[in-house]
Design brief:
About 65% of the residues lie in helices and about 5% in strands. By secondary structure, it is mostly helical. Keywords: Membrane, Transmembrane, Transmembrane helix.
């Protein structure tokens, strides 16, 4: 425990916020960091010129690795929502099943579970894309279809999370961290959806709109990255003597 922690506030103390960026022992920090790493991979993979620089195969591996980070983050997030893992600590040695069942009624659990399903679909899609020998029909079924379904899952999960924190839905609250992150994730999911539509293969074997597909992935990745970074620091309100 830090020297400042555990100090009781006294009358006349001035409040200030202490921000700590490096707190890897917190499970919610781990979630944010994993999402940030995954988002960085997707942004990098969609950056103009990157595929030409490193090669198509390396570009595909960038997406595949990013999808693994996404899945690890989503899985940990679900465990946190169930109470198996505490957001501020490591896994509980023992957790009551009743607590887990109660968690199933929470929007966070539903959003996290749907998002986890989406990340697994991205795993299927990105790792299938590593096979350069796929026929057009195989690529449509094994690469595009799970990518499209994963994008739908992300959109549903983001909508559930946004609906849970944004009341009223039409509002502008940029200083509200929870609202800002939920909004960024929703916009990012919409961008991923646009990318999936544009990435459908046409009979010639090309993407319907490769430029739009890359743009959607890039914008979505940036939104997820910013949202994840906003959740990394541990902000604790403390009080300092004024006299």
């Amino acid at each position: 425990m830090d020297a400042d922690e555990g100090r009781s506030p006294t009358t006349g103390d001035a409040a200030h916020v202490r921000v700590r960026w490096w707190t890897p022992g917190r499970a919610d920090w781990q979630v944010a960091a994993l999402f940030a790493l995954g988002s960085t991979c997707f942004v990098l993979g969609a950056t103009p010129g990157y595929a030409s620089l490193v090669g198509v195969q390396a570009d595909c591996w960038t997406y595949a690795i990013g999808s693994v980070f996404f899945t690890l983050a989503a899985l940990l997030q679900v465990l946190i929502s169930l109470g198996v893992v505490r957001a501020e600590a490591r896994p509980l040695a023992a957790a009551r099943w009743r607590h887990h069942v109660r968690a199933l009624d929470r929007p966070a659990w539903w959003a996290g579970t749907v998002q986890l399903a989406g990340t697994v679909l991205f795993n299927v899609s990105t790792f299938a894309a590593l096979d350069a020998s796929l026929t057009l029909d195989e690529a449509q079924r094994r690469v595009w279809a799970p990518d499209a379904l994963g994008s739908v899952a992300f959109l549903v999960a983001s909508a559930l999370a946004f609906a849970d924190v944004a009341r009223p839905w039409v509002a502008w609250r940029p200083r509200d961290l929870t609202w800002a992150v939920a909004t960024l994730n929703l916009v990012g999911s919409v961008a991923f959806g646009v990318s999936a539509v544009a990435a459908k293969y046409v009979p010639s074997g090309e993407l319907r709109d490769a430029a739009l597909a890359n743009l959607g992935t890039f914008v979505g990745g940036v939104c997820f990255l910013v949202g994840a970074v906003l959740l990394v620091p541990d902000q604790q309100e403390q009080r300092a003597p004024t006299g």
